[in-house]
Amino acid sequence: MPALQDLSDPNRDALEWFALLRRPDCDTYLHQAFAAWCTDPVNAQAYASLEARLHRLQAVPVQARPRPQVSTVRKSRLGACLGVLFVLGLAALAYLYWPWAERLASQLHTEAGERRMVRLSEGSTLHLDSASAMNLDLRGRVRHLQLVQGQVLLEVNLDGRELDVEVGEARIQVFGTRVLVARHADYDEVQVLNGKAVVQQDGEQRLVSTGERLSFDAQGLHRAERIDVRTADTWRQGHLIAKDLALGQVLERLASYRGQRLWLLDEQTAHRRVSGDFDLDRPADTLQRLAADQRLTFHDVLGRWLLVR
User: Fold this and answer.
1) Do 252 and 187 share a structural domain?
2) Which residues fall within 8 angstroms of residue 76, CB to CB, at 6 or more apart?
């Protein structure tokens, strides 16, 4: 038989010795055996080569993975300006179209230039002016009406129940048969054509009798004034009969019949007193004649504003 060849591998044995010498249970006997193994020059060279390789691996610095650079996003002035313009545009659209949306959300409403008569189930009649809106609840012991926009003439059926009209923060108790309630840009008002009415707001109360008009706003209730009952509801026939009326009120009514809101550049113009018979069914022509008489200039802004200067 051929002699058995030595199958040991010094490099493999060096790796095993390296692992054994680093075990926690390595004792004196294991170190003596390792020393005996190293007496062979080949084994000693293999172990020295292993240590040299491991030393070189530890000496190579581990390059840290580059951190991603966080880029600072700077908002450009153009983007900021566009954002502001977008917000302002939305606010302008909401301001322009909010009255129209509010009317559509109401139970009863009329469009610009439209007048409408509504007979209620309990016998009363409502005459709605142009661009007006109302909500109502007639089911309880007290009949509740809410004037949201515009103007309404109430012809009340006295059936023994109380009738209340809500106008902004004010409450009007109607004890008559013909009462006119209107909302304007800066104030609200009630005109009693027949009977009586009591206006309450912020703890203040005022009685209004036949032939009287009471206006009220955020500052409170104003003093009652006398009116001409014969001309108070001529708007139902398409006429605004003014007797020493503020020009701003006339322009506001004519603009509302065109579906526009009034914008007066001169406050003194609003307080001019005018008289006359103004045609509400032809507001554009009436405005042109009024502009010539009062030396005014009108500008149509986006079809929603009537700018007067």
Assistant:
1) no
2) none
Phi/psi at 39 (5° precision) = -65, -20
Query: Could you tell me which residues come within 8 angstroms of residue 233 by beta carbon, excluding any fewer than 6 positions away?
Result: 127, 153, 180, 193
- Whole-structure pTM value: 0.69
By C-alpha distance, which of 202, 200, 203, 199 is closest to 213? 199
**Residue whose entry in the numeric block shows the structure tokens 């030396």:** 295
Which has the higher per-residue pLDDT, 308 or 49? Answer: 308
Question: What tokens does 283 get?
Answer: 């507001």
163 and 211, same domain (yes or no): yes
Angle (CA) 83 89 94, round 5°: 130
| Alpha-carbon span 283 to 255, nearest angstrom | 7
Q: Which amino acid is at 150?
A: G
Number of domains making up the chain: 3
Residue numbers of the domain that contains 293: 238-308
Tell me: the pLDDT tens digits for 111-131? 999 999 999 999 999 999 999
